[in-house]
Structure formats: C-alpha cells, structure tokens
Amino acid sequence: MKLFFRISVVAILFTLVFSQLAPQISANEENDASTTSYEQMKKEGKLDPDTTKEQYSELQTQLQQDKIEEKKEVSSDEFQNDTSTRAKFKLKPGDILVTNASGSSNNGLTGHAAIAKNSKSVVEMPGYGKHIRTIKFSKFRHNHKTGKGKYIKVYRVSSKKGKKAAKWAAKQSKNKKLKYSLGMNILNKHYSYCSKLVWQAYYYGAGKNTVRSKRSQQWVTPYKLAHNIKGAKKVKTYK
C-alpha cells in the first residue's frame, strides 16, 4: 500500500513538473525553427542580401495575420453572391489578381498575385528559381484551380492608371535578370516577388500617388496588395 502511495505521489509530481516545462519546450522548438528557417532561406538565396532576421520575423508575423484574416474572408464570402459573375467579364490592363488557390504559396509567401497585361494575358513572378514571365490568363487559371474555398480575385483601378501599370509590368517582364527574392526594400528593382512586382508597376508605372504608403522599407503581401493600391476595387471572383 505504501509503495503504491509513493508511486502515485511521484507520478503526480512528474505530471505537474512536465506541465510547467512543456510550454517552455515548445517555445524553444519554435525559436529554433524560426532561426533555422531564416538561415536556410539566406543560404539558398531566397532572401535578398540585405534582409535581416528581424525583418524576416516581421514578414512571418504579417503572413500569420494574413492567414487569419483570409480564412475569415473566405468564410464570409461563402454566404455572399458575386455581383460580377457574368460570363462576358474580361480582364483589363492593370487588373490586380490575387489568389489562394493551388500553387499559390511559394517558399515563404502565402497566396500569389499577378497583374493583367491585357484581356488575355498576365505578368507574374511565379516563384523561386523562375523568371518573371507573361502567360495566358487561361494558363494562370489552370495553374491556380479554384473551388472549395479557393479563389482568384480581380481588383481594378481607373483605366488610365491601369494601362500605365500594365505597360511598366510588360516592359519589366523582358528583364530576365530580375531575381525572385524576398526583401523589405520595396523600391529595389534587382529583386522582386509576386505582390511587390504589382506594387512597383503602379508606383513606377502609374505614379507614386497610386500607392497608400511610399515607405521604402515595407512588406507588401498578396492578401494586402489591393489595400495598398489606391482606388482598387474588387470586380470579379473566380470560385
């Protein structure tokens, strides 16, 4: 009986001690994963040379917030009708495309963005190891299949600004030296990523006043892209 009592006491004490240590163990594992992720990204050239660990951490925090907000938006969209589901809908130059569909997350970024060159093609930075390119919109839709909470949303600004942004993006698409790399310097033209390309198309192509923030050091993620372009309004959702 005494032996059973002692074993029970030890078991209870062990449970109490482990419950106190568990959060610390988890926290340490998370910190290690965060450090490894940053170092690995730098080693593989997926972050531009000037990106600091603090800046990368800021990006990760923003992406986590994006995921939470995006899930809420998907849930609310399920109960809303798309007012622009007409079959005759056509892209216009400068239209901003944002998707959460398959193939939209590439090594760090959540979601994907592109800009319409005209009614039939888009310009995009497809991901690490790939060059900036112009592809058919039909191919873009094929690459990012919708359905079951997955979508491609189209945002539009004024025709004049859109055409200027599209023209800049089309010209930039010929620059095969442009590297896909994550960096906080939004004005840097040597490195780019999907949503940064679209932001720069408006900033450099249509004018500085087309963007909400002109800070040189900032992250512009796909899900926050439309908010960062003045006057951008959703005109179509492919579900």
UniProtKB/TrEMBL annotation:
**Ranges of compositional bias, category Polar residues:** 28-39
| Signal peptide feature range | 1-22
Superkingdom of this entry's organism? Bacteria
Q: Which organism is it from?
A: Staphylococcus pettenkoferi
Q: Where is this region: Disordered?
A: 28-53
Q: Where is the composition biased (Basic and acidic residues)?
A: 40-53
Q: What's the protein here called?
A: Uncharacterized protein
Which InterPro entries did the record assign? Papain-like_cys_pep_sf, Peptidase_C92
Keywords carried by this UniProt record: Signal
